[in-house]
């Protein structure tokens, strides 16, 4: 099964418009307060099974949200509530998820390939990290992993949700990869990263590149769980099979829960620099060779 095409920008934009209409278009956004204003009862549910992030319950015209607490991160819990708000606010969602009354069980966090789950995830991303305020905040933070950590602090979001949003917003070439063991869970590349000639996008289930820092880092499961971190200079080729040699930085941090690792790859070189170089080479090579 392939990932359904979901227009992530469109669903984030719907969330941002809602924030403007509610007069809540600033960071940090409080999804609990939005639910309260809608008359939705929100409660913690500590005994959910693994993978379940929350539930939306419909009874007549009344709605309730339960959110999982097995992951203690506030960012995760806020995202879970925002995801359920997505099902509540997005056109067509209540009709698709409920035949009359009932309970919808969610697996938020870009983990499933279900269209409605992904739409609610992008809505949650836009709700907690609306474009305007997020871009403004981005101008005040550093680079790479440091930037993502500072933004997570400002937005009250998890490191992974922030990293995905960062990769989809940043102007510079950047990639974020979440992995478990020696396998890729998912990867997001910024537009400018994708512009590099020959860059291929790592897919779910791909084996980590042997020469990457992440592959070495993940052999120590204890380090991943202890949220250890590391960084190294690498070639972009190691990760993405870029046609030309481009210097990059690979930063890695263990995410603790579930033994996942977040990798952030950035480079100061742009695909435009690369084009210029190629063009120069093309222009001069024949003269030198003759
Ligand atoms: Zn859901």
TrEMBL record:
TM stretches of this protein: none
IrrE N-terminal-like domain mapped to chain residues: 36-165
InterPro entries: IrrE_HExxH, Rad_response_metalloprotease
Annotated Basic and acidic residues bias: 281-290
Biased composition, class Acidic residues, residue ranges: 270-280
Signal peptide extent: none
Region of interest called Disordered, as start-end residue ranges on this chain: 268-290
PANTHER family linked to this entry: ANTITOXIN HIGA1, BLL7220 PROTEIN
Protein name: ImmA/IrrE family metallo-endopeptidase
């Amino acid at each position: 099964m392939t990932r359904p095409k979901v227009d992530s920008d469109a669903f984030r934009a719907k969330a941002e418009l809602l924030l403007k209409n509610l007069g809540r278009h600033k960071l940090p956004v409080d999804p609990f307060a939005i639910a309260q204003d809608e008359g939705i009862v929100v409660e913690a549910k500590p005994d959910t099974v693994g993978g379940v992030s929350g539930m939306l319950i419909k009874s007549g015209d009344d709605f309730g949200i339960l959110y999982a607490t097995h992951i203690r991160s506030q960012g995760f819990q806020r995202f879970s509530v925002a995801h359920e708000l997505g099902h509540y606010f997005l056109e067509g969602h209540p009709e698709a998820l409920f035949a009359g009354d009932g309970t919808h069980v969610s697996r938020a966090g870009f983990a499933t390939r279900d269209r409605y789950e992904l739409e609610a995830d992008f809505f949650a991303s836009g709700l907690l990290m609306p474009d305007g305020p997020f871009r403004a905040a981005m101008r005040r933070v550093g680079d790479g992993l440091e930037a993502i950590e500072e933004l997570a602090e400002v937005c009250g979001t998890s490191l992974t949700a922030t990293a995905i949003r960062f990769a989809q917003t940043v102007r510079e070439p950047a990639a974020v990869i979440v992995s478990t063991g020696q396998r890729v869970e998912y990867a997001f590349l910024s537009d400018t990263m994708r512009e590099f000639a020959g860059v291929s996008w790592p897919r779910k289930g791909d084996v980590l590149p042997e020469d990457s820092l992440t592959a070495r880092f993940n052999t120590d499961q204890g380090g991943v769980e202890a949220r250890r971190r590391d960084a190294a200079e690498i070639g972009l080729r190691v990760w993405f099979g870029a046609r030309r040699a481009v210097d990059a930085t690979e930063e890695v941090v263990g995410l603790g829960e579930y033994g996942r690792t977040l990798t952030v790859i950035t480079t100061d070189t742009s695909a435009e620099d690369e084009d210029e170089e190629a063009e120069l080479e093309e222009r001069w090579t024949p003269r030198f060779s003759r």
